[in-house]
Amino acid sequence: MAVSIHHLRRLKERAQPIVALTAFEYATARLLDQSGVDLLLVGDSLAMVALGYPSTVPVSVEELLHHCRVVRRGVEHALLVADLPFGSYEQSPAQAFATASRFLKEAGAQAVKLEGGYRRMVETVAFLVESGVPVLAHIGLTPQAVHQLGGYRIQGKSEQEAARLSEQAFALEAAGAFAIVLEHIPAPLAADITRNLTIPTIGIGAGPGCDGQVLVTHDLLGLSEKPPAFAKPYVDLAALIREAATRYAEDVRDRRFPL
Ligand code: KIV
Ligand code: NA
């Protein structure tokens, strides 16, 4: 049965971990979906790992819409969530709805993710949810704010920052977010936030105490140029691809292929 936002809540209630990955194109999206992943995210990490941008800041709505449509064609089971890119939602709830509704109407997303838990973003989450757009929130290390944060550093290390993140998580739950991504914060803080919320948390670089885990699929597969230290490659696809291409080149040059 296809995964719904309600199913994710039930998984938390049953203490069953939620499995999430990013998906960027049709072939891998199909395979990930067939593997029984619960949630597939057309993340704006696409910008860095698949489009070659230096950060997630430059990627456009049109680019993410395109990839979301492509992924949609390969996904039957997982809940399909799309990132709203930087600059497409921060100005106002109305701007956010205009962008989010395109992902649902034109690209088959079932929910959107947006970064930040400050007051206006909480208002925006409430507006989207009231308008029928399920929202996955995202706090902690929010890569779209890389220039503000001064790098991809762990967040929530001071007591004050930890308290602020806990407050944001509460406020986002109250605003109606169906789950929250916690990125690169101390494991005890993530576990604490997770215990105190009724909606699921999905961690990345946030320790084992979250209700689920998400990884960038390029990191999972060993395809990223600079994977974060907290990512775990499950296979070295970069080596396999290089080896296949090298063998092919040798065969063509030595006239062993085709026979
Ligand atoms: O863009 C992305 O891949 C993400 C996940 C890492 C949560 O936002
Ligand atoms: Na993202």
Label the CATH architecture: Alpha-Beta Barrel
Biggest beta-sheet profile:
8 strands, parallel, barrel
Main sheet: which strands, in order across?
Answer: 1-2-3-4-5-6-7-8
Total of DSSP H or I helical runs spanning 4+ residues: 11
Give the overall form. globular
What is the N-to-C order of secondary-structure elements (H for helix, E for strand)?
Answer: HEHEHHEHEHEHHEHEEHH
Task: Tell me the radius of gyration.
Answer: 19 Å
Approximate helicity band: 40-55%
Number of beta-strand segments: 8
In the predicted model, the low-confidence regions spanning at least 5 consecutive residues are: none
CATH homologous superfamily grouping: Phosphoenolpyruvate-binding domains
Under CATH at level 1, the class stands as Alpha Beta
Strand % is 5-15%
**Bound small-molecule species:** 3-methyl-2-oxobutanoic acid, sodium ion
Termini gap: 46 Å
Number of domains: 1
CATH topology, by name, is TIM Barrel
Task: Output the structural class.
Answer: alpha/beta
Mean pLDDT: 98
Enzyme class: transferase
Catalytic activity: (6R)-5,10-methylene-5,6,7,8-tetrahydrofolate + 3-methyl-2-oxobutanoate + H2O = 2-dehydropantoate + (6S)-5,6,7,8-tetrahydrofolate
GO molecular function, one term: 3-methyl-2-oxobutanoate hydroxymethyltransferase activity
Function: Catalyzes the reversible reaction in which hydroxymethyl group from 5,10-methylenetetrahydrofolate is transferred onto alpha-ketoisovalerate to form ketopantoate.
